[in-house]
Write a structure and sequence with these properties.
single chain, alpha/beta, Rossmann fold, 6-stranded mixed sheet, 33 helices, disordered N terminus
């Protein structure tokens, strides 16, 4: 049993290990009740990194000595707390045992024991001058009455218990009583309930001290009889014992509250023993957010300092709104700032938060209790916290489903897209690190071994807008796959494979197989396509090194329009661009995104862009004319919100850090103002004879068995690139049915069917060759 207890104890940390201070709980000795979320006085991770940085500048030896001193002080403090807490509990349990035994004797006094039969008189004996059978001898041998030791009286035990409560570091129950504002009577009730979990003898003692000996659990009535200065309001729902769920009242049927069994909460019992861990009801829904393993970039470090200052004020309620679309960067800044104050950040998805009023009240009281016991802060991203494009700031006001978060005690951090949740909240706008900062983070996190060249780091920093935590995760993940230090290509591939994970379900992933040389365009349009690729590769350097990112935040995106009739190669060109840039390609069907419900289209578009903000993704919006038609005059609310959808999409495209390609069959249907905001407009016209011949020459795979073909004759048929591919594939099926290579007759047969499908005129003169070949084959 002892071995099992020791193993369980090793799985949980003692209080001073987590919250170190002069009193063992991260509080100043003699301080008043601790505000919710007050920082511990230990060495948190954020401050530890800054101390490490200063120590490296002063020499490795000084850092080692400093770390050794901190470790030694922590061990001494842990040992002192464990001794004080054990002595305090032993004194309290001893006092309770005396009280219960005294009360049991009063309820059930001992019955007189019948005297035994009188023994025969002893034989007279003399020793020296005393006759031991005489009355004089009895007087000499009568023991002197002695008072019991002071600690064996309830008064003496109570004094020793109160003396142990004043030791430093303070015992857990003594500190808990101060933080929650418990009276002496309420503290004693909590100790009485905890005794059931600390000493197996107490159920029998408690049963013997009550009128109904079958009740082996403490009751409020028993506490009123045992302790001085009883208070009838101790079990009120508004008092700490029940409000903060320190004890549970098991009242059933018509039983009176005063006779209902009481039980201490498991988390509180463990805390009194010296074990500090988060309540399992929060662990089931909360996800800890670890501070970034790398130092924050300068821009984020300055923002983290502001959050540190707000938290250091120790207000009972601190509400912070983190504004921006880069959720990963906001998490890094918040976690680092809180860690510097010794506070753990917990993120709870909004879907896991309670909905009904009773559950919300229980959660709020539980969260306030945990905030008093352990330094924690809540991070939550409420739905609808970002207004639709073009909407006024009032659209960011909280909905009735989550406005209660604004009143939650402790530190609450809202991850919102726009400010306005609460006028009294602290606002902080956080964006992604700059290209230069990301380049420095990649260089610092790079594993030992050959360092990457500057161009590779520049491209990584320019494409992937990752904060410090994600950069370390990417390097560790790629190193695990490579079995050692990863190279740039493997690292790039690792980032791209995970870049579009959040887009699954919002867009269709297309594997880019087409090559740029397979795209047949006129020279002018091909030059536009090549420029698009060059700009995408050097976008980070152009915006950062040349200062455009500091001057503006709109109009910096790479948005291109591919226009032309169906089958001219728009999707194929998008695949080729994605493959050339090494990006994941996602196709978004705008026709399916459009919704008749007001605001629903904007919501879907926001989800697409937010999921692609991390980089490594190219977005292909198909059927663009379904959204980007000419904006109409506002005649009703539907027209107004339709224009809002267009404005929102244009704004997100201009600010998007990747490549956006729009494909349409009807360029003339687009608004001219929309075309002005595009960087590239590339036409995919009907291919001429030269382009068609080049397409025919490249359409068959190298592994396909093909007889010599007359490509010039095939180029005379008016087909687009898509139709040529369909004809080549159909010819392969015809040849496979015969079991021979692809021949001219197979291709002409399928070409004729393709023209009929497209309702285009069939040049019979061109098909004379088909009749001649067929006649020769029949001879």
């Amino acid at each position: 049993m002892a071995g099992s207890a020791r193993r369980r104890a090793r799985g949980r940390q003692s209080l001073p290990d987590r919250r170190r201070g002069e009193d063992g709980h991260g509080r100043r000795a003699g301080a008043g009740p601790r505000p919710v979320g007050h920082a511990a006085a230990g060495a948190p991770p954020g401050r530890w990194r800054r101390e490490q940085s200063r120590a490296r500048s002063n020499g490795a030896a000084a850092a080692v000595r400093s770390a050794a001193d901190r470790d030694g002080a922590a061990m001494n403090e842990t040992s002192a707390f464990a001794g004080n807490n054990s002595a305090f509990l032993q004194a309290g349990l001893h006092w309770l045992r005396l009280l219960l035994e005294n009360r049991a004797r009063k309820l059930r006094p001992p019955q007189p024991v019948p005297a035994p039969a009188e023994p025969p008189p002893p034989r007279p004996r003399r020793l020296f001058w005393i006759d031991w059978a005489s009355d004089a001898a009895a007087e000499v041998c009568q023991p002197c009455p002695r008072a019991p030791p002071a600690e064996d009286t309830p008064e003496g035990a109570a004094a020793k218990f109160e003396e142990a409560a004043q030791r430093r570091p303070r015992p857990a129950l003594a500190a808990l009583s101060q933080w929650f504002g418990l009276s002496a009577f309420e503290r004693n009730v909590l100790l009485l309930c905890a005794a059931m979990e600390l000493d197996p003898r107490f159920p029998a003692l408690i049963a013997g001290a009550q009128e109904a000996p079958v009740v082996a659990a403490p009751t409020f009535g028993l506490a009123l009889d045992l302790f001085d200065a009883p208070s009838w309001d101790a079990l009120s729902p508004t008092r700490p014992l029940r409000r903060h769920q320190l004890i549970e009242v098991h009242q059933s049927g018509a039983a009176a509250l005063i006779a209902a069994p009481l039980r201490i909460d498991e988390r509180i019992a463990a805390y009194i023993k010296g074990l500090d861990y988060l309540d399992e009801r929060l662990l089931e829904i909360a996800e800890p957010v670890a501070p970034p393993p790398l130092p924050l970039p300068p821009s984020h470090e300055a923002l983290a300092r502001r959050v540190e200052n707000w938290i250091a004020r120790g207000q009972p309620t601190t509400l912070v709104e983190l504004v921006g679309r880069d959720r990963a960067s906001k998490r890094d800044v918040a976690a680092a700032a809180l860690a510097a104050n010794g506070i753990a950040l917990l993120e709870i998805p909004f879907a896991r938060l309670p909905r009904d009023a009773d559950a919300i009240e229980r959660f709020a009281n539980l969260w306030e209790r945990e905030g008093l016991l352990t330094p924690i802060a809540l991070l939550v991203a409420p739905p609808g916290a970002e207004p639709a494009g073009g909407e006024p700031p009032e659209a960011a006001r909280p909905a009735p489903g989550w406005d209660w978060l604004l009143k939650l005690a402790g530190i609450v951090i809202l991850d919102v897209g726009a400010p306005g949740a609460d006028p009294a909240a602290h606002l902080l706008e956080i964006g992604a690190p700059t290209v230069a900062e990301r380049r420095a983070l990649w260089a610092e996190a790079w594993p030992e071994g050959p360092e990457p060249d500057a161009e590779a780091l520049e491209r990584l920093a320019g494409e992937f807008t990752l904060p410090a935590s994600r950069i370390r995760l990417a390097i560790d993940g790629a190193a695990a796959e490579a079995g050692g230090a990863p190279d740039v290509e493997r690292l790039w591939s690792w980032c791209v494979r995970r870049a579009g994970g959040a887009l699954e379900g919002l867009a269709e992933r297309i594997a880019p197989r087409a090559k740029i040389d397979e795209v047949k365009l006129p020279a002018q349009d091909r030059e536009q396509l090549d420029r698009l690729i060059r700009h995408a590769r050097t976008r980070g350097a152009a915006l950062d090194a040349y200062g455009f990112s500091a001057m503006a935040n709109r109009g910096l995106g790479l948005a291109a329009l591919f226009h032309g009739e169906s089958g001219t190669g728009k999707t194929m060109a998008a695949e080729a661009v994605a493959r050339e840039l090494g990006l994941a390609l996602f196709r978004v069907d705008l026709a399916s995104i459009m919704s008749k419900y007001i605001g629903d289209t904007t919501k879907k578009l926001r989800g697409v862009f937010d999921a692609a903000e991390g980089g490594g993704v190219m977005l292909l919006f198909d059927e663009a004319d379904a959204v980007f038609g000419r904006r109409s005059e506002v005649k009703d609310s539907h027209d107004r919100f339709a224009n809002i959808d267009i404005n929102y999409l244009l704004t997100r495209m201009e600010a998007f850090g990747g490549v956006t390609i729009l494909a349409t069959n009807m360029k003339h249907a687009l608004d001219p103002a929309f075309l002005r905001r595009l960087r590239f407009v590339i036409g995919f016209g009907f291919p001429g004879a030269a382009e068609r011949e080049a397409i025919w020459r490249d359409v068959f795979p190298k592994a396909a068995p093909v007889e010599p073909l007359d490509y010039a004759a095939l180029a005379r048929f008016p087909l687009t690139g898509g139709s040529i591919f369909n004809a080549a594939l159909g010819a392969a099926h015809e040849a496979a049915a015969e079991g021979g290579p692809i021949a001219m007759r197979h291709i002409l047969t399928v070409v004729r069917a393709e023209l009929q499908k497209l309702e285009r005129p069939i040049p019979e003169r061109e098909f004379a060759l088909l009749r001649e070949v067929t006649a020769k084959a029949g001879q």
